Each structure stands twice: as C-alpha cells, then as structure tokens.
Automatic annotation (TrEMBL):
InterPro entries: 6-hairpin_glycosidase_sf (IPR008928), 6hp_glycosidase-like_sf (IPR012341), Glyco_hydro_9 (IPR001701), Glyco_hydro_9_Asp/Glu_AS (IPR033126), Glyco_hydro_9_His_AS (IPR018221). Residues 40-499 form the Glycoside hydrolase family domain. It catalyses: Endohydrolysis of (1->4)-beta-D-glucosidic linkages in cellulose, lichenin and cereal beta-D-glucans. It is an enzyme of class 3 (hydrolase). One of its GO terms (biological process) is cellulose catabolic process. The chain crosses the membrane at residues 12-32. Keywords: Carbohydrate metabolism, Cellulose degradation, Glycosidase, Hydrolase, Membrane, Polysaccharide degradation, Transmembrane, Transmembrane helix. The active site is at H426, D477, E486. Signal peptide: none annotated. This is Endoglucanase. Belongs to the glycosyl hydrolase 9 (cellulase E) family. GO terms for molecular function: cellulase activity. Its EC number is 3.2.1.4. It comes from Zostera marina.
C-alpha cells in the first residue's frame, strides 16, 4: 500500500475514533441532563435491608424483614459442627461459601472506604458484615479445614420451597489438606481480614479474632494449593465453579492481609507471585470468580499515597482496567467492556448486574484514590489521553442511576425503590406466602404453583437488585427468566458502598 494511502487511513481511523468518543460523551450528557434526582439515602437503606431477607439461622429480635422466619437451624449437626447462620446467596436455599465470602469482602470494603457517608445506616451495614463473619468463623473453626457449602444444590434447585420449610438434604461440603480449595479459602481469608479492619475500633477483641483466623486460613490456602471445583466438582459445579483458577484468590487474600497487618511478608508474597499467578490476566474482570481488577485497585492506593512504590505494576494494571471501561478509550489491546444502547455496562454471562455493581465500585474507589493523590489516568485515544477522577465518578454514578430508574424501561431494578420495579423476582421466600400468613408446611413440589403464577410476589424483598435487563435494555419481569430476575448478595454488596458515596456526594 502506498505511504499516502496509509497515512490517510490512519487519519480516517483516528477521526472515526474521535467521532465515536464525542457521540458517546454527548449521549451520556443528554441522559444525565434528563435524569431525575434520586434518593440515594433511601436506596442505601433498602440495599442493606435486603441482607436481612437472605439471613439463615436464628433471626434476632430486631429483625426488620418480618415475613422471614428461622431456617437451617440444624445445619452442620449431622457432621458434628455448628454451621447455622450466614446468608443464602440468591433465590435458593443453599449456603455457598465462595460467593458469601466475596460478599463479605465487598461489604467490608464499602464500610472501610465509604462508611463515613452511610450516616444512620453505618451500624446496619456493620451488622450485615457481622452476620456473615460470625458464620465464616464457624466454617473455619477446625484447623486446615474450611466448610464451603451447606445444602445439596441439585436437590435444592429441584424444589420451590421457603427456607423455613426446607426438607432437602443439608449436606455439608468441606476442603482440607487432601481436598484443597485455595480459591474459597483465599477468599475467606480476604473476607476475614477486610472485616477485621471494619471492627478494629468498634470491637477490638472481635477484630483480633478475625485477623488471627484470616492468617490461619490464608496459610492453609497457600500450603495446600488447588481449586475447590476440582476437589468438589460434583457439588459446586456448575453453580459456583471456579472458572479462573485459584491463583487470584491467593493474591487477593494476601492483598487484604497486607492492608490489615502492614506486614512485609504479604507484600513480598504479592511481588514474588504476581507474574507466576497471572495478575496481568483478565484485568477488567471482577466478581466472586475473578479478583484481578480488585487486587490491582486495592494495592494501587498504596502507590498513589506514595507509601509503597514497589507496587507500581499493580497501579499500571489498574490504569489499564479503568481505560477498558471508558467508551472510546483503549490501552494495551485490552478488550473494552460493552454498553447497552441505554448506557448499561454489559458483559456476557448471567446476572449482568453483578458486573455493573462490582466494576462500578472499583471505578469509584479508584477515582477517590486518584483524587487524593491529584492524579489522572492516561488512556490512549481519549480526551487528550487523560481521564480525571471526576469523569470516573460520573461513569460510576451513571450505572447507579441506571439501576435506580434512569433507563429505557423507566423502572428501578431495586425492589421497593421507586414506583416501578420488578414484581416477580426469582426468589423462593419472596414468591411463596410467608409462614405468618400460611403456617402450614409447603413441600418441595408444593411451591410450583406459586413459581408458575403470573401474580406478583406476596413478600417484598426490599432492596434486592435483580440480574437486570439484557443487552438491548429489555427486562421480562418473570421468575422463569432467572438470569434477569434473580437477586444475589454479591450484586448488592458493592452497591452499598456506591450508594453511600452518592448519598453524601449527590452531585459529582
């Protein structure tokens, strides 16, 4: 090809890219200008209240989600261990340890970074963390053992019944020296370490217990390496199978232990294993399965604050992650995240809102770290290559506002927020009559009539955020479309921190 044609082609490509960026920016500006003001405080209160609807075990006297009752009261008894408590992860009645631990880590991170903005909801958020950590302490009470699941998922998913009526097998699954699970153990260590920071001044004795256990569990995770989905494949797959390997959870656990202890040993562990464990892989992924982007953002704070310069590579990875989320920007040939026509961040797979809230949380956290350090992110092909903290905050806020109702469906995807929200969510307890109104037992198949009904759920699971609309912004509001209509704890957990920030900073 002649040189002149090459130069003109490059120029044309550059003009197209600039045009696309301008179009995206204009679209966002138009959408923002037409937004109504949201009550982020009300949304925050409801997002935390949701966790009460997911509680397992003996409910306390101050339980506010009144249609729920005690459940799983003999969990672990047949195995000689007390595994009562904790959270049901979604619309079923199984306690999955992997997503529960991730939920705990993100709730804790939200309190650590954004607790000041929670106001009168701070104590509620702390109690939501403690409901989970009390359970995680039980699952890690035996040395070199982590109990990772309660309930036979296949049998549970064959039923549609209230947690208070469960009559399926409450089988207990564990990882140990001979059946390793570095992923779920590493995430449990991260959760315990992060929560130890939450309770450091609120309850020092409890905090020290959490941190000691985190150290022990991480040591077990690192010493006996392997994925729990190999050790327990028949039980945990395809539900919460570890698709991305256990290495990221080891780095994640070390990162939180470093933050909680300030010990050099964890920093050296991170540096020694960063490339071995593939910390540069999939860096625009973050959720219960893949922690890479979270590791990079968490450790970048140390670099941006000028404390630990040897972690610069994590900061570069965090910048790459941020650039992959900005429409029109590119960096190091990373695959950019896609957006729906209505502006919702979209990644393939089920329950898209888990990506929306988790990635938005990282964007907001990083924007604050950048802001305090008076730094920007350099992104090739975008706005003179500089993305400011305020731009990142607007990007995160746009996703939160979409969830709360600024979307083509003009509905909130949080149950109980606004005048229009999902009424037929894929959730057993919400869709069946409560034991208060229907005290008689409803068996495994007895709930099918309620599942198949087109009527709205009788019990409002206030604050639940569902899986959300598809890539064209359409939402069916039907129990049978579980990928769109099922809420999860790990959708709500990062949203708590986001809402706390925008409650205190409604204009960004």
């Amino acid at each position: 090809m002649p040189a002149s044609h090459s130069h003109s082609g490059i120029l044309l490509a550059a003009m197209v890219r600039v045009t696309m960026v301008i179009a995206m920016v204009m679209m966002v500006m138009v959408m923002v200008s037409g937004e109504k003001k949201h009550d982020y405080g009300d949304a925050l209160r409801k997002s935390i209240l949701f966790f009460q609807g997911q509680r397992s075990g003996k409910l306390p006297a101050n339980q506010r989600m009144k249609w729920r009752g005690d459940s799983g009261m003999r969990d672990g008894a047949r195995h000689g261990v007390d595994l009562t408590g904790g959270y049901y992860d979604a619309g079923d009645n199984v306690k999955f340890g992997f997503p529960m631990a991730f939920t705990t880590t993100l709730l804790s991170w939200g309190v650590i970074d954004f607790g000041r903005g929670m106001g009168d909801q701070l104590n509620e958020a702390v109690q939501a963390v403690k409901w989970s950590t009390d359970y995680l302490l039980k699952t890690t009470s035996v040395p070199d053992v982590v109990y990772v699941q309660v309930g036979d998922a296949f049998k549970d998913h064959g039923c549609w019944e209230r947690p208070e009526d469960m009559d399926t097998d409450r089988t207990v699954y564990k990882v140990d020296k001979d059946h390793p699970g570095s992923d779920v153990a590493g995430e449990s260590a991260a959760a315990l370490a992060a929560a130890s920071i939450v309770f450091r001044y609120r309850n020092p004795k409890y905090s020290r217990l959490l941190l000691r256990r985190a150290v022990e569990v991480f040591r077990f995770a690192d010493r006996y390496r392997g994925a729990y989905s190999n050790s327990l494949r028949a039980a945990v797959c395809p539900f919460y199978c570890d698709f991305d390997g256990y290495q990221d959870e080891l780095l994640w656990g070390a990162a939180w232990l470093h933050k909680a202890t300030r010990r050099r040993v964890y920093r050296e562990y991170l540096l020694r294993n960063q490339k071995v464990f593939g910390a540069d892989d999939s860096i625009n992924e973050f959720g219960w399965d893949n922690k890479h982007a979270g590791i990079n953002v968490l450790l970048s704070k140390e670099v941006l604050m000028g404390k630990i310069d040897v972690l610069q590579s994590f900061r570069r990875n965090a910048d790459d992650f941020i650039c992959s989320l900005i429409p029109g920007a590119s960096r190091n040939q990373l695959e950019n995240v896609q957006y729906s026509p209505g502006g919702l961040l979209y990644k393939t797979g089920g329950s898209n809102m888990q990506h929306v809230t988790s990635l938005s949380f990282l964007v907001l956290a990083y924007s604050n770290y950048l802001s305090h350090a008076r730094k920007t992110v350099s992104c090739d092909g975008f706005s003179n290559s500089a993305a400011s903290p305020s731009l990142l905050r607007r990007l995160a806020k746009r996703q939160v506002d979409y969830i709360l109702g600024d979307n083509p469906m003009r509905m909130s995807y949080m149950v109980g927020y606004g005048s229009k929200y999902p009424k037929r969510i894929h959730h057993r307890g919400s869709s069946l009559p409560s034991i208060g109104t229907h005290p008689r037992h409803i068996g495994c198949k007895g709930g099918s009539v309620y599942y198949l009904s087109s009527n709205p759920n009788p019990n409002l699971l206030v604050g639940a955020v569902v899986g959300g609309p598809n890539r064209t912004d359409a939402f069916p509001d039907s129990r049978s479309y579980f990928q769109e209509s099922e809420p999860t704890t790990y959708i709500n957990a990062p949203l708590v921190g986001l809402l706390a920030y925008f409650k205190s900073h409604p204009v960004v």
